[in-house]
Amino acid sequence: MLSVFRIISSVLLIILIKHTLLFIFFYFLIGLSDILDGIIARKFKLESNLGAKLDSYADLLFYSILVFVFYKLFPAIISDNFKFVLLGIVFIRIANLIYTKIKYRKFVFVHTISNKISGFIIYFLPIIIIYTKNSMTVWISLLLALFAALEELLINLRYSEVNLNRKSLFSK
Asked: Which of 33, 128, 156, 169 could make a disulfide contact with 2, Cβ separation 3.0–4.6 Å?
């Protein structure tokens, strides 16, 4: 239910981009529900493949919408150079989805530590940008996201079985 809420709320962000307080409220709720989703599922033993997939789709939609939001809110900081790195990340993510669909006959999103860290940093990136007004924070965030995307692709290339909760390329 929390993942479905995140999907709906992520779409609402586009509508609320000009309404600062509502935008911030829903943005905060999306992050909080993402954190609580996993905690509640583990605590009450409600983990499921459907829940993991919904969580991944909610993340994918949220971060896709976040790219649009970044360009609308921070056009002076988001330079053309970032677009190439961002396109690289998108290309790797799409290649990974196509590869896993062919290899496993389903789309696979692996919940690695690097995916979680890069997601956490990118979630807080708008706040960081507001306070630092520095493009270096964008570079660091994009490079972490690029590393996470590459690691996930390498995991799917390396291992024959699906493990959605594999921690890293080097874990079993």
From this structure: 33
Written as one string, the DSSP assignment of 15-76 is HTTT-HHHHHHHHHHHHHHHHHHHHHHHHTT---HHHHHHHHHHHHHHHHHHHHHHHHH-TT
pLDDT(77) > 80? no
- Using the CB atoms, write b or e for 130-162: b if 16+ within 10 Å: eeeeebebbeebbebbbebbbbbbebbeeeeee
Give the model's pLDDT for residue 52.
82
**Nearest CA among 83, 78, 63 for reference residue 129:** 78
Cα-flanking dihedrals φ and ψ of residue 111, to 5°? Answer: -90, 70
Cα distance between residue 16 and residue 11, in whole Å: 9
What's the pTM? 0.81
Tens-place pLDDT, residues 28-53: 999 999 989 888 988 998 888 888 88
Q: Which two tokens stand for residue 53?
A: 């997939």
